[in-house]
Amino acid sequence: MAFEIDARINPELLGIAWMIGHWEGTGYGHHLGGEDYSYSVTVDFTENGGNYLHYIMQLFETDEEGRPVSSLGMETGFWRRKADASVEVVIVHPEGIAEVYIGTISGAKIELTTDLVARTVTAEVEETGGHRLYGNVESDLMFTYDRGTTDFELQPYVWARLARA
């Protein structure tokens, strides 16, 4: 499906504007030190005229027919493209984790590495770092998220392919 970027969009968003919209799909994950699982996922990137995108991702456990039945988690944040074709991303999780990423934009591929991870005293996971890839592949949004914790080195955590809904 062809996607056209609105001419009125803030020019600072060029390079990440292809992500704007609502995306849905399925993904797979690996509990660090545990088992693999599948899930359904929605991702929304929205803009309001500013120099950033608002981002929200929600993961859901599914029933036998693939319908969402309960929340597995979510995250939200902000994406800012910089003049040098780099990107800064801030992502927060309700379980008490905040991540700051820096990365590069190369066409329809965005690669992010954590610059900072902050955790509340009661954070459910002692995350130490992350690496993420986002890309436009055959008009779909694909992403991977590798996660490291105090107990596990950086390793694949979740990945998915989503279609624009």
Compile the SSE list and pairings.
Layout: E1 21-30, E2 36-46, E3 53-62, E4 68-81, E5 86-93, E6 97-106, E7 109-119, E8 127-137, E9 140-149, E10 155-164
Antiparallel strand pairs: 1-2, 1-10, 2-3, 3-4, 4-5, 5-6, 6-7, 7-8, 8-9, 9-10
List keywords for this structure.
ten-stranded antiparallel beta barrel, 0% helix, globular
Instruction: Give the overall average pLDDT.
Output: 93
Structural class: mainly beta
How would you spell out the order of helices and strands?
A: EEEEEEEEEE
Main β-sheet: number of strands, strand sense, barrel status? 10 strands, antiparallel, barrel
Distance between the termini: 11 Å
Q: What fraction, in percent, of the residue positions are helical?
A: under 10%
Put simply, the count of helices is: 0
Over all CA atoms, what is the radius of gyration? 16 Å
Q: Beta-strand level of the residues, as a percent range?
A: over 45%
Low-confidence stretches: none
Word description of this protein:
The protein has 165 residues and is mainly beta. The protein contains no helices and ten strands. It has strands spanning 21-30, 36-46, 53-62, 68-81, 86-93, 97-106, 109-119, 127-137, 140-149, 155-164. The protein has a ten-stranded antiparallel β-barrel with strand order 1-2-3-4-5-6-7-8-9-10. Strand 8 (127-137) and strand 9 (140-149) form a beta hairpin. The termini are close together. The model has no long low-confidence stretch (mean pLDDT 93).
